[in-house]
């Protein structure tokens, strides 16, 4: 298992989109979404061997960590904030 390091840098535009998206998530789910996506995005960057969390790391984290029940909301929010998510959608 990959240990998540919390001191990676975030690509500025990707971070801004992510923060905008987090604010749009319903309050009841916001804290848990932020916790799991933050952790998984760091792990995704580390698995790529990168010291920088990029848009792809964030989008992949949402797809792998957010329950399918919230898929349509997640897609709408990814689109609303300008994430290029389609190439990362699970097949």
Structural commentary:
By secondary structure, this protein is mainly α. It has a domain at 28-88. Helix content is 62%, strand content 4%. It is built from 4 helices and 2 strands; from the N terminus they run βααβαα. It has a two-stranded parallel ribbon with strand order 1-2. Helix 1 crosses helix 4 and helix 2 crosses helix 3 (55-65). The longest helix has 21 residues, at 27-47. The chain is globular, with a radius of gyration of 12 Å.
Brief rundown of the structure:
By secondary structure, the chain is mainly alpha-helical. Helices cover 62% and strands 4% of the residues. It has helices at residues 12-24, 27-47, 55-65, 71-81, and strands at residues 9-10, 52-53.
Based on helices, strands and strand pairing, what is the structural class? mainly alpha
Per DSSP, what share of the residues sits in E-state strands of 2 or more residues? under 5%
* Order of adjacent strands in the largest pleated sheet: 1-2
Percent range of helical residues: 55-70%
Spans of 5+ residues with little confidence (pLDDT < 50)?
A: none
Count of DSSP helices? 4
Q: Return the average pLDDT rounded to an integer.
A: 91
Distance between the termini: 24 Å
What characteristics describe this protein?
91 residues; mainly alpha; 4 helices; 4% strand
Please outline the helices and strands.
Blueprint (H helix, E strand, L loop, with lengths): L8 E2 L1 H13 L2 H21 L4 E2 L1 H11 L5 H11 L10
Helix pairs in contact: 1-4, 2-3
